Amino acid sequence: MINKLKALTILVIGYILVGCSTNTLPPASLHQSTTVDVSSYKYLIGAGDAVNIFVWRNPEVSGTFVVRPDGMITTSLVEDIPVSGKTPTELAREIEKILGTYLREPVVTVTVNNFVGPFSEQVRVIGEAAQPQSISYVQNMTLLDVMISVGGLTEFADGNDAKLVRIENGTQKQYDIYIEDLLKNGEISANVDVLPGDIIVIPETWF
């Protein structure tokens, strides 16, 4: 009976796969970071961040709130305040306007804990890194800092054929980076600035 049921299940799945037409999904949307150079970096709030909102002389509406996956928070007075992609200062001014409906001239300060940031602000390393992962960007981060965070290269990596992918003016651009020269030969000239949203692709060597 069990074998017959398995056979029937396989038959049904095969029928579904044959009957369905194959379509190609569109490519992922390009999300450009607001940081265009190292000196212009400002931290942006993202899902998973813990946002501490302090309203002067109004402790009952102050508190710490975790940003939901949809980029919003809910406070004691206002539901669904969009916060993702804003700086703490921008959010403080926006909350002052919102609370102005309920309070007289509110003064708000916003601080952030558990820094995560939006995906568009994270640095992603894929391919032959020892520990491929997404990294929360830190001001003045360099390629060397990123490679230390991911544990360096695997023994199969072609570090000098790696690419850095960056969105500039809505266009995806690739830059050559020489990770092996940097890590194994100590060539500091191969160390370059990394910006929020950069993707580092490390291929496997052919031999």
Automatic annotation (TrEMBL):
Claim: Transmembrane is one of the keywords in the record: yes
TM region(s), chain numbering: none
Alphabetized GO MF terms: polysaccharide transmembrane transporter activity; porin activity
Statement: the UniProt record of this protein carries the keyword Lipoprotein: yes
Localization terms from the record: Cell outer membrane
GO cellular component entries: cell outer membrane; pore complex
GO BP term, pick one: monoatomic ion transport
Top-level taxon of origin: Bacteria
Similarity comment: family membership: Belongs to the BexD/CtrA/VexA family.
Name of this chain's protein: Polysaccharide export outer membrane protein
